[in-house]
Amino acid sequence: MSLSSSRVAVVTGAARGIGAATAVRLAADGMAVAVLDLDEAACAPVVDAITGAGGRAMPVSADVSDSTRVQAAVARIAEELGPPTVLVNNAGVLRDNLLFKMTEDDWDTVLDVHLKGAFLMTRAVEKYMTQQNWGRIINLSSISALGNRGQANYSAAKAGLQGFTKTIAIELGKFGITANVIGPGFVVTEMTRATAERMGMSFDTLKQHMAGEIPVRRVGEPEDIAHVVSFLASENAGYVSGQVIYVSGGPQG
Question: Which are the catalytic amino acids?
Fold first, then answer.
């Protein structure tokens, strides 16, 4: 049995997009995967894809911004799949608006899901990782962490994730736990489709425009991010920690 086949991964926001692609990829790497999202029923297609290919997976419902639900979800995962030692904090929402139009609820919702959610999930799995003396924490930030019009809340949350990750990399390194950040650029997901709607243009038009601005001349797909998660979650990435890796088709400032 390979070491990967004995690992249990938790992927949040895994019912679709980057989360779904990541769950499928980690399962292909041999890990058992908890497919976690707000709506457990929405996780079924991802779980079916994994089990249909011979992997192990379970759907899990949890609001990552709710401490009680997070603790219950992680305890259930540990009981049914085994101690989780890989965590991918991918869950996210958008509440885009210019600052003068942004409400407190817009701000709180985005910070709670992205930043508080990553904190709560990481705190919940930490004990299993330290007991195993091995762990991989991978947090999904964004190039929007560098600033993006209409996304003061989202940019703040994604920048905050970078500081959070660097800090836990320092704190947890002695336990064999690494923590890293992936900052996707433009990736084809429901969230970027919503961005096109907010901008009043078709998604195809936005994709075409963005491809022209990206050095590799194409937009990203969820699998592009999943490939990088796969490496960071692997045995071979044990000397990579506290890093921010932008996966965006070109250099970032």
Answer: 154
